[in-house]
Design brief:
Elements: E1 3-7, E2 10-13, E3 18-25, E4 32-39, E5 46-52, E6 59-62, E7 70-75, E8 80-85, E9 94-102, E10 106-107, E11 110-111, E12 120-121, E13 125-130
Parallel strand pairs: 2-13
Antiparallel strand pairs: 1-3, 3-8, 4-5, 4-9, 5-6, 7-8, 9-12, 9-13, 10-11
Length: 131
Amino acid sequence: EVQLQASGGGLVQAGGSLRLSCAASGLTLDDYAIGWFRQAPGKEREGASCISISSSYGSTYYADSVKGRFTISSDNAKNTVYLQMNSLKPEDTAVYYCAARFGPGFSGSYYFTNRDEYDYWGQGTQVTVSS
């Protein structure tokens, strides 16, 4: 059974850092793409970053809002994907979800950042950035 567990959220001051983890079970990362989504209060869930693990097709994507500040990576031995978040801003406050989809995370230049394109979801972890 596929399960995703997001962790690592917390309360930090603006300018601080957090490292989120998405531990996957029931799947092999080289067969799936992992995306990080976030949902701020009163807003729609949006894609923040995604990664395809395959050495042949692997790639990463960052939304403009996080590019240059967030870094996505994976540890295949641990079946875990990470999201390193630096220079955090209050606007980054949200519940962060990791999600998985079968196959690559992209097709050509198109990256799968729509929540409807993902098959499995973790429970989410709260990130709060104070001013």
